Amino acid sequence: MTNKANQYSPVCRAVKYALASGLALGLYSTSALAQEAAAEEQKVEKIAVVGTRAAPRSIADSPVPVDIIGGDELMKSGSSDMLNMLTTTIPSLNVQTTPISDAATLIRPVNLRGLSSDSTLVLLNGKRRHRASVITFLGGGLNDGAQGPDISVIPGIALKQVEVLRDGAAAQYGSDAIAGVINFVLKDNADGGSIEVKQGEFFAGDGTSTEIAANIGMPLTDNGFFNVSMQYKNVDPTSRSVQRADAAALAAQGNPFIAPITQVWGSPKIKDDITLFANAGLDLGNDREAYIFGNYSERDVTGGFYYRNPHTRGGVFSNDGGQTLEVIDTAGLGNCSNVSLFDGTRKLSHNEITARVNALPANCFTFFSMFPGGFTPNFGGNITDTSLTAGTKGEFKSGFAQGVFYDFSASVGRNESAFNIINTVNASLGPDTPTDFEAGKYIQLEKNFTADFIKYVNMGLHNDVAVAGGLQWTEETFEIVAGEVASWEIGPYVSQLTNGSNGFPGFQPDDAGVNTRRNYAAYVDVEAEFTDNLLMAAALRFEDYDSFGNTTNYKITGQYRLNDDWALRGSHSTGFRAPTVGQANVRNVRTAIFEGELQDVALLPPTHPVSLLKGGKELTPEESRSYTLGLVYSGSGFFFTADWFRIEVDDRISQSTEFDVSQTDRDVLRAAGVRGVESLSKVTLLTNDFDTVTRGLDLVANYSTSILDGRSTFSLAYNWTDTTVTRFTDVTGDFKVSRLEKDLPNHRATLTWNQQCKRNSNHTLRCGC
């Protein structure tokens, strides 16, 4: 038998990697490339673990749609961001870039099948991955109030493959799996390794990114492996901005302190992004195995905010819309008055305004003298992510449980976001304000203990019936850490000027605290092949939360093979997504623009006294019903799937519209112990306030053939998704409904051509790549 693996040159494969990666240089050991080439050429079908608790199945035999992206495919990508890598392969996956969006700039939300980022469950080696600590307050409508996981910390070089289950799976895996499941499988090689260097930038000349990544596999005694991956990355910011009209007008009036671009609209700067992933396994003998894996990741992210006009910004420069500059009396002498910016109806020039400010008595202060060109805060944070999972699995060999396969595991995951804001002021402190602030932290901590069992039972069918069951215990904690005093302090001039670090006030001691929730779950999952052509599966899951009670969900799936090439498949399931502890307890103040003016908006817990006045109430789980119907063709080098889906979600959790703050509201806030309410213009809250129906179609096609003296593989993936809001109230608002229905693209498609090069018997290369 001819060894086809030797026909493909490792050298040409390295060249192909570099070409597919744009400005990328890949350095790989010859043995590792040869092994990859052999594995890729010899494998006939891709095997999925996610979506079934029975023996892994090929994606053609799966009763639900599953995408598998191999680690080598990810390495060919020119992108250095895991989110971008996945979106180019999975058309129903969208990632939004949200400039000037508070913490959403730091951790980008992911959307599968048109649902929010926390409606997709993320697994690592089949185990639940913890959420990010960031709650997206400005998420483009779809992700407002969402708290999803941070996928960007996972480097492509660490992955063996990525499995994407495009189907509701809450009955199998629990909360968050309404849209589907993404399972990241880490490499488990005991030898070999690779080094990868990538550098690139946008055609505009910005956003330069540099990435160094490495992977190495080592033996762990004679019966195990220890695989380690590292990535270090820096990404410069981008700017797709033009000068603001008001800033350009100030420059035209002779103000020399106006920056060329006062408000940057683009991706943030990412500095010292370092990630370390490790995966280890050890064969204990007698069909037993121990495993452990985890990660440490850290990065600094900095992005821009809205420009503060030195003539009009309320609460800092002016309180009358730019007619006068607000002046404070720092000594209480009573000899200070506001500086008019007009001479009758004529607007004064910059030099004339400066002369009037300089003529003020020494005890009279205006922020125009500190920032004559205005200022633009820069918001950022340090994101630290850690996790550790350990467990053991095997088969009971004796006793009443003989023949039962088990998997016991424990995991802990922690994500910390430490916020900072620079080039801004706490205006209520007057001239004593610092300009850089540590605004506080969000910390998400999750602990899981799981026990999973499966037994294959002979019931006289075509194959043994797989009967699985298990238990899970989870503890979720969300903590708010107060910022430094100056970031939230109410200074002596609060009656005239706003308090707190302008743009993102620090978390007050009253906001700080730890909130915890626990829940346990039990499930049963049965999968049976009734005949050679008919596969059926059913799952039932019960979960009980100590906050809102319990929920029970089910799933039924099936596949019927019409012949050797064609098959029908479908599923129906119910699901749920529990509100996170962070969503139920988070507080935040942000600056947003309304009708051209910047105003402070407070996000309050849904059970806060003011929230109750606005219609707030305790959050309850989202509930879903999912339907899918698919067609599969596999034969003659061609693979094709078409899957229609419909997802109905009731009582979706999102951020409400912004409500005006009345004097009565301020009085209630003061009575509740909230400080600094004088600067608040609007309040918002998280609420279960609307229902949606999402429909769509996924098409995936792959064809392999021999052309150009090599092996060519053509891949096409297409998605159509449409979301309709079927119920909402004034708390949601028409504008948010429009964004929910229209902000994501209805159609997405990707076309890929992968060319492998062939080596002749005389070792010369013949390749059309």
From TrEMBL:
<keyword id="KW-0998">Cell outer membrane</keyword>
<feature type="domain" description="TonB-dependent receptor-like beta-barrel">
    <location>
        <begin position="377"/>
        <end position="753"/>
    </location>
</feature>
<keyword id="KW-0732">Signal</keyword>
<dbReference type="Pfam" id="PF07715">
    <property type="entry name" value="Plug"/>
</dbReference>
<protein>
    <submittedName>
        <fullName>Putative TonB-dependent outer membrane receptor</fullName>
    </submittedName>
</protein>
<dbReference type="InterPro" id="IPR012910">
    <property type="entry name" value="Plug_dom"/>
</dbReference>
<dbReference type="InterPro" id="IPR000531">
    <property type="entry name" value="Beta-barrel_TonB"/>
</dbReference>
<dbReference type="Pfam" id="PF00593">
    <property type="entry name" value="TonB_dep_Rec_b-barrel"/>
</dbReference>
<keyword id="KW-0798">TonB box</keyword>
<dbReference type="GO" id="GO:0009279">
    <property type="term" value="C:cell outer membrane"/>
</dbReference>
<keyword id="KW-0812">Transmembrane</keyword>
<keyword id="KW-0813">Transport</keyword>
<dbReference type="InterPro" id="IPR036942">
    <property type="entry name" value="Beta-barrel_TonB_sf"/>
</dbReference>
<dbReference type="InterPro" id="IPR039426">
    <property type="entry name" value="TonB-dep_rcpt-like"/>
</dbReference>
<keyword id="KW-0472">Membrane</keyword>
<feature type="domain" description="TonB-dependent receptor plug">
    <location>
        <begin position="60"/>
        <end position="181"/>
    </location>
</feature>
<comment type="similarity">
    <text>Belongs to the TonB-dependent receptor family.</text>
</comment>
<keyword id="KW-1134">Transmembrane beta strand</keyword>
<keyword id="KW-0675">Receptor</keyword>
<feature type="signal peptide">
    <location>
        <begin position="1"/>
        <end position="34"/>
    </location>
</feature>
<dbReference type="InterPro" id="IPR037066">
    <property type="entry name" value="Plug_dom_sf"/>
</dbReference>
